[in-house]
Amino acid sequence: MAPSQGFGAGGGSGSSSTAARQARQLEQQAQRSLQAGDWEGAERTYRLLVQRRSTNPAVYTNLAALLTLQRRTGDLEPLLRQALALQPDDPVVQNNLGQVLVQRGELQQAEACFQAAVSLDPAYPQALTNLANLRNQIGALEEAIALYRRALAADPSYVEAHWNLAHPLLLQGDYRQGFRQYDYRSAIVAPIQPHATPSLPLWDGSPLPSDGPLVLVSEQGLGDTLQFMRLAPLLKPHHGGEVVLSVQEKLEPLARQSALADRVVPHAELPSLNRGQWLPLLSLPGRLGIEPTQPLPPLPPLQPSPQARERWAEAFAMAKDPAPIRVGIHWQGDPAHETTSLRGRSLPLALLAPLAAIPEVTLVSLQRGHGADQLEGCGFLDRFSGAQAAMNTTWAFDDMAAIVEQCHLVISSDSAMVHLAAGLGRPTWVLLKAIPEWRWGLERSDSFWYPSVRLWRQAVDGDWAGLINAMAANLKGQIRSGEIAPC
Fold first, then answer.
1. Cβ proximity of 212 and 189 under 8 Å
2. Nearest partner of 352 among 403, 408, 411, judged by Cα
3. More confident residue, 31 or 355
4. CA distance linking residue 4 with residue 87, whole number of Å
5. Of 333, 328, 341, nearest to 429 (Cα)?
6. CA angle 480, 481, 487 (to 5 degrees)
7. Which of 39, 184, 229, 421 has the smallest number of CB atoms closer than 10 Å to its CB?
C-alpha cells in the first residue's frame, strides 16, 4: 500500500462551491508535502480533509498508505472502510483492508475482502496471493497452489507469489519445485536475507572447483541454522575443496565441536574472503537435491563441549529429583515470529500438567526468554528437577545441549529446541498444530529429517489439550513397559 501519485478532487466535477475549492487546495497541499518528504505535514492535511468528511476516496486511501509506511496501523480499518463506502468497486482498497484484517487475526473477514478484490479484478496478483495465503493456512493446499499459479499467470515477475507458493509445495513433499520457489525469499518486499553476504559468486548447484571454499552462511532463526548446518558434511561428495560454515555467534561453539565443516568463521570475517563461492544455508537442501522420499544418510550429531557435559552430569547427579525419568519440556517460541504460517505453534505451560501427573517423571524446563515466566505461577513446580534453579540462569547453547543430553526424552512445541534436541540424537516428541510448518509434512508421525523424532499432530485445529492427554497416556505406557527407562 503506497500513496498514489495523483489525487482526485473531492466533490462533483465542475463544482464551484467554496468547500470544493478548499478541498482541492488541501489535496494539492498534501501532495506537495508528500513530494517534499514532509509526512507529518501531509498527515495533518489529510486528517483535516477527513474531519471535513471528504467525499474523495483517495483521501482515505492515501492517509492509510502514509500510516502504513510508518507502521502505524491503528487507524487503518476505519479509513479503508470509508474509502470503500465511497467507492465499493475498488479492488485495491478491498485487498488493502483484507491485509489489515489479517494482521488483526480476523481471517474470515479478510478472506471476504480478498474474494471481493478477486471478483472485481480476476487477474489481480496481490489479491490472488493474499487469498492463497489464507487457504494455505487452513490446509486447502491444492486451492492455494492454484491461486498462486493464477497470480503468476497474471504477473510472472510477482516474487511474493513465487515465495509463498514454495510453502504448500514443500508441505506436500514436492521439494524439487518447492525449493526452486523458496529461492525467491531474497527478492520479496521484506526480503529474507542471510546474516552476512560474502563478496563471492553465488553457488548455483553446478560442479564446484576444488581450489576454493564453499561458504555456507546462516539465515533466519536459530532453529533453521541448527537443522540445516548439519547438512554441511553432505557436500563432500560434491566438493573436494574446503567447506566453510558461518553461523550466529551463539551457535559457533556447537558447530565447531560437532565438526560439521572444515572451518567455522564469524560473520565479521566473511568480507575478507576472496576465493570460492557461497550459499545461504537454507538453499542447501535444494542444491543437494534432497527429497523426503529418499532417506538422508547418517549425519554427525551435535556435540556439547566436554566441560559442559561434565558440569551438567554432576549437577543432575547431585540434584534431588522427584522421579527417575527426566523429561525436558519447551512450550513457547518467539511470539515475534508467530505470524502467518507459525501462528498457533506455541501453547501455555499449564497445558503440560498431564506430564507432571505421571509419577515416574521429573520435568526439566528448557524454556528460555519468552514463556519462561510461566514457571513462577506453575501449579506443578514440585515436579521439576532439583537442578532447575541452576538451569534457569543458563543461556549458552553449549550448556543447553549438555542439559538436553541429561534428559531421557524432550517434548517441545515447534521451536529451535526441537532442532537442538533432535540434532543431538535425543528422543524428541514434537507438538504440532493441525497445519504445521512445511518441514514436518502433513501426515507422518516420524520425521524424514531426524531419526529420533516423533511427531504429535493436532487432530482438531487449536486442540492442544486433547493432543497432550493422548501423548501423556502414551508416555505413561512406554515408561511402564520399559521402552523409556533411566539410563
1. no
2. 411
3. 355
4. 16
5. 328
6. 80
7. 39
Cβ–Cβ < 8 Å for 291, 372: no
Over the stretch 184-206, which tens digit does the pLDDT of each residue have? 999 999 999 999 999 999 998 88
What is the per-residue pLDDT across 376-400, written as a single tens digit (0 to 9) for each? 989 999 999 999 999 999 999 999 9
Torsion of the alpha carbons at 293, 294, 300 and 301, rounded to the nearest 10: 20
Among residues 87, 85, 109, 84, the alpha carbon closest in space to that of 98 is found at 109
Supply the pLDDT for residue 27.
82
Mean confidence (pLDDT) of the chain: 92
pLDDT single digits (tens) 241-269: 899 999 999 999 999 999 999 999 999 99
**Phi (first) and psi of residue 408, to 5 degrees:** -80, -25
Unique residue bearing C-alpha cell 558434511: 233
Q: Residue 71 in contact with residue 100, Cβ under 8 Å?
A: no
pTM > 0.85: yes
Q: What is the pLDDT of residues 58-97, one digit of tens each?
A: 888 888 888 888 888 788 999 999 999 999 999 999 999 9
The CA distance from 213 to 422, in Å, is 29
Q: Which three cell numbers stand for residue 162?
A: 513465487
Nearest CA among 427, 447, 425 for reference residue 436: 447
Residue 389 to residues 65, 91, 209, 361, 385: CA-CA distances in angstroms? 49, 56, 52, 18, 9
Greater pLDDT, 2 or 270: 270
Report the length, in residues, of the chain. 487
Q: Given this model, what pLDDT does residue 199 score? A: 94
Residue 71 contacts by C-beta under 8 Å, 6 or more apart in sequence?
none
> Does position 351 have pLDDT exceeding 70, yes or no?
yes
The three grid cell numbers given for residue 295, joined into one nine-digit string: 532417506
CA distance 408 to 427: 7
Phi-psi bin for 291: left (phi > 0), alpha (psi -120 to 50), beta? Answer: beta
What is the β-pairing status of strands 243-246 and 214-217? parallel
CA atoms within 13 A on the CB side of 215: 26
Q: What is the pLDDT of residue 10?
A: 33
